[in-house]
Amino acid sequence: MLTFAIFLVLFYFHYQLGFSEAQLQFGFYSRTCPSAESIVHDVVQHAVAKDPGKAAVLLRLQFHDCFVEGCDGSILIKHGGNDDERFAAGNAGVAGFDVIDEAKSELERLCPGIVSCADIVALAARDAVVAAKGPFYVVPTGRRDGRIANVGHAANLPDDKDPINTLKSKFREKGLSDQDLVLLSGGAHTIGTTACFFVMPRLDAQDPTINKEFFKILRSKCPQGGDVNVRIPLDWDSQFVFDDQILRNIRNGRGVILSDSVLYRDNNTKRIIDSYLGTNRSSKANFATDFAKAMVKMGAIGVKIGVEGEIRRICNATN
Ligand code: HEM
Fold this sequence. Notes:
Layout: H1 2-20, H2 36-50, H3 54-66, H4 97-110, H5 117-131, H6 164-172, H7 178-189, E1 193-195, H8 200-204, H9 212-221, E2 231-233, H10 245-251, H11 258-261, H12 267-276, H13 283-298
Antiparallel strand pairs: 1-2
The chain binds protoporphyrin IX containing FE.
Residues 53, 56-57, 59-60, 63, 93, 158-160, 167, 184-185, 188-189, 192-195, 198, 257, 259 line the site of protoporphyrin IX containing FE (HEM).
């Protein structure tokens, strides 16, 4: 009887521990779908070779996935109405769904029902970073797909017009520090573009923090009354390539969108930017390494694991 009681206690603790400690794992698919990562890699490589802008698109997709309902592929869902998460104002311009769908259909052919769409998004973002000459990092996997995608749940995404304190608190709510804020927006925007839509209000308001020469350049690219959809690099002179030039630009009043520029107007985020631009010759390497760590951290926001959620058969619909 006593032995049985001890067994029950041990079983209980084992079960509790196993369950509460359940988390993402490195190489989650190594036995169940060994080629999962290489398939995503090949699809991303191909997409970026055809269109170098796709790297930024895929990186942004993971940010917008993780900040709403956690990294659970909810942004991919398309019910057919206008109430899907992906149609939220803050998700305007988010794309890359075709690349995720392509990887998923290849994976379903080889390992049906095994690889989650949420993991494909995370792996594709990493491969996109590498394709843009950014750092390679190992992506822990095992995310499961969410079943909820509601436009209202995406109302609180970080906004380019948010004051720095709001940006900081929106990141903090997701378990991300001020340093992560600098690393993630800096590291991602080093390869991306923006629509003039986000730049024009700054120019119209004669934002005094924009370098005077740079102001003229921006105005010529995004003239008053011009097409708001014209796209310009977020990292001037260094688009498509992952590097720390964007931090230098932000420091020098050459930040393109407001949420990047404000990073140099707050004591703490300014100090963080300066730390990556120090005379230390390895600062560039640190920026890349720390960006990679921040990506892994972002990729773990609110993940669904174990028996939560599902493994979708197609990424744009729940099963
Ligand atoms: C501080 C919070 C952030 C704000 C307010 C913000 C805002 C923006 C805006 C307004 C654009 C231009 C969108 C367009 O015109 O289509 C943009 C582009 C982009 N964002 Fe962010 N962003 C933030 C953080 C991040 C993070 C954390 C990542 C990823 C880790 C990211 C990845 C990107 C990428 C890669 C692009 C370029 C997309 C492209 O070239 O198509 N952003 N962001």
